[in-house]
Batch of 3 targets.
Target 1
Amino acid sequence: MILSACSDIKNKKTSDSEQKAGNDKLTSEILEPEIIYQPADGIVKIYGAGGPQPAIIDAANKFQEKTGVKVEVIFGPEAKWTKSAQNDADIIWGTAEQGMTAFLETYTEFDSDKAEPVYLRPAVIAVKKGNPKNIKSIDDLFEPNIGIVVVEGAGVYNTSGTGVWEDIVGRKGKLDDLKKFRKNIVAFAKGSGAGFKAFKQPNADAWITWNYWVIDHPDEADIVKIDIDRIIYRDLTLVTNDKADPEAKDFIEFMKSEEGWVFFEKHGWIR
């Protein structure tokens, strides 16, 4: 299994209501028409945003061991892999429905009708190891002197965390909750990788994130579960197409299988 990691930040802009002739797909400004899509090379290449990759890498290793088919997992901010993906992606993964929708404006060989939600994960509160501020719920984040990190796309960055904190805090319809919470935000991070870095800073006590970031970094954070009446879930979606290496469909089926599920369950996904 070949692994590639990407870490730079990119701003993704969507063009105005530009449409491809003959269909309703929007296209993005990072779509490069001169790139020729040629995915069939004997290697299953799967691209997506950072976060879910530990489970996907585990599944890819097992799939390669069983079948001998090479799988390359490329992850991180889209700016680092978009040109490669436009050329040779066999599979795209999305970390939220809105994220997959944005991806499909660029990777136009993939069809929204073929994108499939496969697993879910919950948002959580990540706190510093040992939970020194004794944070037990979202309500504790409304108190003074609590530094909070949130992930926010700011309308230009394709991240699964866009709007999650507002959904959670505003869930009860109390404007005062949002006012108190917002006053405590110390970082609006573009992407979960940037969110994790901001969370490590001394002025940060809590981070609204996905459970696997804590599960996969147990020495650096603890999980505080979000109350059932506020919790938000977003999904992992997968999509391939008929031009891709045929083994791409096999790998998707493996990830969805009972054997593949073991790797996702280990990293905090549910179904």
Note: The longest helix spans residues 53-67.
Target 2
Amino acid sequence: METQIDYWQAHALLEWQIELGAAEAISESPVNRYEIPEKAPKPAAQKAPTVTHQPEKEDDASEVALKLAQSAGSLEALREAMAGFDLCDLKRGARNLVFSDGNPEARVMIIGEAPGREEDIQGKPFVGRSGQLLDKMFAAIGLDRASPDAQTALYITNPIPWRPPENRDPSPAEIAMLKPFLMRHIELADPDVIVLMGNWACTALLGRAGITRLRGKWQTVMGKPAMPMIHPQYLLRTPIAKREAWADLLEIQAKLKS
């Protein structure tokens, strides 16, 4: 004979089960979890997943950047191509495209690092305190970004045209993605001397970092002499390094005269 329980006992048992976490009834009859079935069911055969190669976003973006850069026949066309390039996440968080400053006909082309806050606001490379120091440094050897004369002018750009969030360092993937634009920029500007200002310019164009070891030693970039130099931002923090920067400036001056 089945044991009969009254309503309130059943209600109390149900509340107890709910407190234990039983929130849903899945069967009208209880299930004996300890019962051993006579024959275990065979597991259903699973179809092996099809593996297809999907190119990485960075690979696709680099190919698009290369095509856009090669199609640009002038600096203005290159600027428009970069402004329309939407595959780099840095663009979404930046205010302005930082393309260049100075005289495009200049014999000396300076390549800096990623734009900072002031550069992002003004849309120009090397502004603020580091830009002021840069101007004083090159004025000491008779060069000025505002000069209309190509012999005494400077032309300035960056390997990365958009400011990274919170001024973080650019990633290797971002540098590689945007490198075709930088290479085309150098081709179109066609300077006599390139100045690699800081570690990230050296990383982008030499594939090496360690500016304190590289500085002062002439390198070759796209068939042109390139001088690695310590970034002005570092000189502001470490004034004693200005003597090395002065020696590098004299090397650049001598190269231009020769």
Note: The CA atoms of residues 99 and 228 lie 21 Å apart.
Target 3
Amino acid sequence: MIPASVGFQCPECVREGAATVRTVRHTSSGLRGAVARWGAVPLALIAANVAMFLGTAVSAGLAGSAPLDNYRSPVFTALAQVPLLVELGEPWRLLTAAFLHIGLVHLALNMLALLVFGSELERQLGRWRFLALYLVSALGGSTVIQLFGEPLRPVAGASTAIYGLLGALGVLMVVRRQDIRGILVLLAINVFISFLPGVSLLGHLGGLVTGAAVAGVLVLTRRRSTLQWAGLAGIAIVLLTLALTVPTAVVL
């Protein structure tokens, strides 16, 4: 007999009881857990950016350059934003440039910011509204570069969209009357960094203002999904019209 919590049990009963115990299986895989924690859209955007970086690195290697000098690749050259080339009939550069990065450090910093701020905003806005915010913010930064940037200077990076996320998060925090001192300090630091050589201040400010505007539209039209999407489409159309019809600024 085998001692039990109450009395004794025979060995056969114990074996039969053990056979009927079901093994608990974890139904959520590692990927599902990551999606639940960080959001599907931020992870998909990070995957797209990483894939683009790998593609430009391989392209650079095939072209005879070091893979980490990915900005020397033909793929990077064909997709980066060059205002004059956009004006001459290559509009895809307005968005494709937001998926390019110059080196691993540039990629890592932007993807970390996307993971942190993107996961929070997706929870607040939903997947599709967050994706629209990201893409329209990237377009806003590209439009400002197109209007006021150097015509022949290549520009690339997800920073335009990342600053849009910061602008949107700031608006949402103000609406909810949350403490915004932390995000203001973060914005001040990032704006300061934007003045460093090689960093696009125009793209950052354009993305920041556009993201704040998108969040404002979403807040003002909440509970009216049709108006929200109409407002987002209107902002995108205005930006595209400005970027594709206004001549590129001539910088002496």
Note: The chain has twelve helices and two strands.
